Amino acid sequence: LKFRRRPPALRAARRCCLRRPPRARPARRGRSMAASKGGGKVSFKITLASDKAAPFKVIVVPEEAPFLACLKFAAEQFKVDPATSGIITMEGVGINPNQTSSQIFLKHGAEL
Fold this sequence. Notes:
By secondary structure, the chain is of the alpha+beta class. It has helices at residues 8-18, 33-37, 67-77, 101-108; strands spanning 41-47, 56-62. The longest helix has 11 residues, at 8-18. It starts with 7 loop residues before the first helix and ends with a helix.
């Protein structure tokens, strides 16, 4: 018995009909959704109130970063002592630095 080959146009048509949709990938185990997406970042515009020129720095940090680390970093950028530094909002409300950056951002906004 001899088998005849189909013409190329019919072979391509047959392949398109039999093509399966791509399978969904299984979820990765051991990672949270935030870790798999890379996590978010927040930015703060911090203005130095003790200077008449009112210089400011914009810092971008991960959402889960402790705000105390942001406070220390900003104080070092302004060349002031981090131990005696504090942050207040534009409305004059003092901020407790023992929170995450995302909590501060949601409560007080980006301008500090």
